[in-house]
Amino acid sequence: MFYRYEDGHRLPHDPLKAIVAPRPIGWISSRSREGKINLAPYSFFNMISTRPCLIMFSSEGHKDSVAFIEETREFAANLVSANLSVAMNATSVNAPRGVSEFEYSGLTPVDCTLIAAPRVAEAFATLECVVTEIHKPKDRHGNPVSAIMVIGEVVGVHIDETILTNGLVDMTKAQPVSRLGYMDFASVSETFQMFRPKWEESGR
Ligand SMILES: Cc1cc2nc3c(=O)[nH]c(=O)nc-3n(C[C@H](O)[C@H](O)[C@H](O)COP(=O)(O)O)c2cc1C
């Protein structure tokens, strides 16, 4: 099948998020200027540069995470492992601004090292970030859309060493959870390796 996006998909549910999948989940913790703390999952999340290390998440609308981050220009991205799936999902509750999703979901906020935002004590890894840009994307006609993209530079990295095997983050231990389409999630159960080809060795 093919459809022009603007004509609609004529399927029971929009397939787009099932096609752009699996998506890593950034579990974004932040603090407001007055000290309230916030936690929410964002699957419009990724790393966009390594030197410096920049990561981004995108909020569809001006949600609490964006509001807090605009105030303090810092946030942390916590890793969601399979054992934290239910708690992660609980933190997506549409709680009134100022209500801590840490408390709502029974998670433990602990201080970050370099930034004021809290981190999730139960998470196996956390990236501490300082905001570099809060970007307002546009559609192809140049009209602003409701999404707000927050980009942050990673300034600190926490790793629970129990997920390391020979110094490498072991996916079978970290069991990162990703977002698929519809109401579906996946966690990593199998990995395989490939090495990038070198043109000089290809014989062409
Ligand atoms: C796994 C998962 C991924 C999500 N990803 C996004 C996302 O990328 N962008 C977004 O705007 N909302 C996303 N949501 C919904 C937000 O988590 C939800 O609206 C939440 O209440 C926002 O919290 P906040 O207002 O405290 O920032 C996601 C929810 C779940 C469960």
Task: Give the topology, please.
Blueprint: H1 16-19, E1 23-24, E2 26-31, E3 37-42, E4 45-49, E5 54-60, H2 64-72, E6 74-78, H3 85-90, H4 101-105, E7 109-111, E8 118-120, E9 125-135, E10 147-159, E11 164-165, E12 168-169, H5 171-174, E13 177-179, E14 185-187
Antiparallel strand pairs: 1-13, 2-3, 2-6, 4-5, 5-10, 6-9, 7-8, 9-10, 11-12, 13-14
This protein binds flavin mononucleotide.
Question: Would you mind describing this structure in some detail?
Answer:
With 204 residues, this protein is mostly beta strands. It has a single domain, classed as Pnp Oxidase, Chain A (Roll). Helices cover 14% and strands 35% of the residues. The protein has helices at 16-19, 64-72, 85-90, 101-105, 171-174, and strands spanning 23-24, 26-31, 37-42, 45-49, 54-60, 74-78, 109-111, 118-120, 125-135, 147-159, 164-165, 168-169, 177-179, 185-187. The strands form four sheets. It has a seven-stranded antiparallel sheet with strand order 3-2-6-9-10-5-4, covered by helices on one side. A three-stranded antiparallel sheet has the order 1-13-14, with no helix packed on it. A two-stranded antiparallel sheet has the order 7-8. Strand 11 and strand 12 form a beta hairpin. Bound molecules: flavin mononucleotide. Flavin mononucleotide binds at residues 25, 38, 40-44, 58-60, 63-65, 89, 92, 94, 179.
Descriptive keywords:
three-stranded antiparallel beta sheet, seven-stranded antiparallel beta sheet, 204 residues, 14% helix, mainly beta
